[in-house]
Amino acid sequence: xxxxxxxxxxxxxxxxxxxxxxxxxxxxxxxxxxxxxxxxxxxxxxxxxxxxxxxxxxxxxxxxxxxxxxxxxxxxxxxxxxxxxxxxxxxxxxxxxxxxxxxxxxxxxxxxxxxxxxxxxxxxxxxxxxxxxxxxxxxxxxxxxxxxxxxxxxxxxxxxxxxxxxxxxxxxxxxxxxxxxxxxxxxxxxxxxxxxxxxxxxxxxxxxxxxxxxxxxxxxxxxxxxxxxxxxxxxxxxxxxxxxxxxxxxxxxxxxxxxxxxxxxxxxxxxxxxxxxxxxxxxxxxxxxxxxxxxxxxxxxxxxxxxxxxxxxxxxxxxxxxxxxxxxx
Length: 329
Ligand code: SAM
Ligand code: SF4
Fold this sequence. Notes:
Elements: E1 14-18, H1 46-58, E2 63-67, H2 77-85, E3 92-97, H3 102-111, E4 116-120, H4 126-133, H5 138-151, E5 155-161, H6 171-180, E6 184-188, H7 201-204, H8 208-216, E7 221-224, E8 232-237, E9 243-247, E10 260-263, E11 268-270, E12 278-280, H9 281-285, H10 292-302, H11 324-327
Parallel strand pairs: 1-2, 1-10, 2-3, 3-4, 4-5, 5-6, 6-9
Antiparallel strand pairs: 7-8, 8-9, 10-11, 11-12
The structure holds S-adenosylmethionine (SAM) and iron/sulfur cluster.
Iron/sulfur cluster (SF4) is lined by residues 23, 25-27, 30-31, 68-70, 98, 120, 324-325.
């Protein structure tokens, strides 16, 4: 029986966990160039993350996505994933990564029962890749994607954030790359999380409708009615295995079917990516009179403050001051 049901009748069965705020890249839309990361005692230990994940599964969560920051740069991440993969009642363990560690990590992830991977890839041009990530190496990521393909996950999806005058001219090439490699691909509109210097989000905004129009000029897109419970609209392309998703927080409202909550690296349970409503689970975990019943009750009660919808507006200063790496995308 699901126990996590909010005031609007939505069942929460999907938890995203950011296991680190750190990253080996500094993508222009995600982080400032000079980031200060959290001190160790402020972030959840791997044991605490495991305890929370297990509790959520006992409360009916069926799917967990591990993200960050770059989850695979945290020491012990692969051991944590193996433990989570063995949780009884968890149907899907999935991971979002920038791909930089996949050459070595992919086989271990597969053994840990990670079912699917989302790998970020915004451009196929090595110079642009370096500019967008500020220090990433495209070749290494492409080798990582190749290794992951060979290892054989149930599905691999590329995530591309599209910015006007940066990489918007590459949407067709990225789709062709996905087709050639039998991968899915999602295009993500930039979300206004945190202020990033030297980067104007309103100017960089390139809508899903514009991406769709660019793709429709080259590919035959068919609306796919798969309801994944996520924020994507999906399309397939004739005679290929590739599905194309559009994640459009600005142009389309996906809140009415929201089934997810997020655990930040500091142990805050965020009820909505676009709002600050949250509950401090770390405080409960570290309290001297901790009990698993109290933790469970706090999670059940948190459903009462899950907002109806998010509050993004790309043309205004962000109402959300945390960066994406704190929350996990
Ligand atoms: N480091 C991993 C990665 O890049 O895949 C996982 C964490 S990252 C925060 C997760 C996803 O969020 C990535 O696909 C990234 O492109 C996306 N992202 C980061 N900042 C964003 C923003 N401001 N708007 C939209 N997507 C963003
Ligand atoms: Fe790192 Fe991912 Fe953020 Fe890029 S999007 S800086 S890879 S956490």
